[in-house]
Amino acid sequence: MAAMTSAYDLRTAAGWFRLIAFAEAVSWVGLLLGMYFKYLGSPQTEIGVKIFGPVHGAVFVAFVAAALAVGYTVRWRALTWLLALLASIVPLGSVMFLIWADRTGRMGSRPVSDGIAGRGTPVPETT
């Protein structure tokens, strides 16, 4: 079987991180729309916040966990860790961080089981 070359290969920590980063951005958009309709929309309704609030909370936690997994797997330096955690707070920051991390070579492609379980040689972060 040919190896997958997709950036969203879920056999890698980076693939999971990319998927969760986009889910986090989508949940942010949903929450922001929900807040618009709660406070400014016509008619005003809380349904968007009631739906997207918990969804965004769960995806936020998943984003932080995925960032920890990727950072551990590819051995991020302290500044990269800090930027990833800050990106989780800023609306759509997860996608901005992901684009930056991809362009600067801070994302690895080792299978999740190799990186988390400690098997294999870690991919060092480039400067």
TrEMBL record:
List UniProt keywords, sorted A-Z: Cell membrane, Membrane, Transmembrane, Transmembrane helix
Q: Where are the transmembrane segments?
A: 16-39, 51-72, 78-101
Q: Which GO terms describe its cellular component?
A: plasma membrane
Main location class: membrane
InterPro entries recorded for this chain? DUF3817_TM
Topology within the bilayer? Multi-pass membrane protein
Where the record annotates domain DUF3817, the positions are 15-102
Q: Where in the cell is it found?
A: Cell membrane
Record's superkingdom?
Bacteria
Read off the PANTHER family from this record: MEMBRANE PROTEIN (PTHR40077:SF1), MEMBRANE PROTEIN-RELATED (PTHR40077)
In its UniProt entry, what is this protein called? DUF3817 domain-containing protein
Q: Which organism is it from?
A: Mycolicibacterium parafortuitum (Mycobacterium parafortuitum)
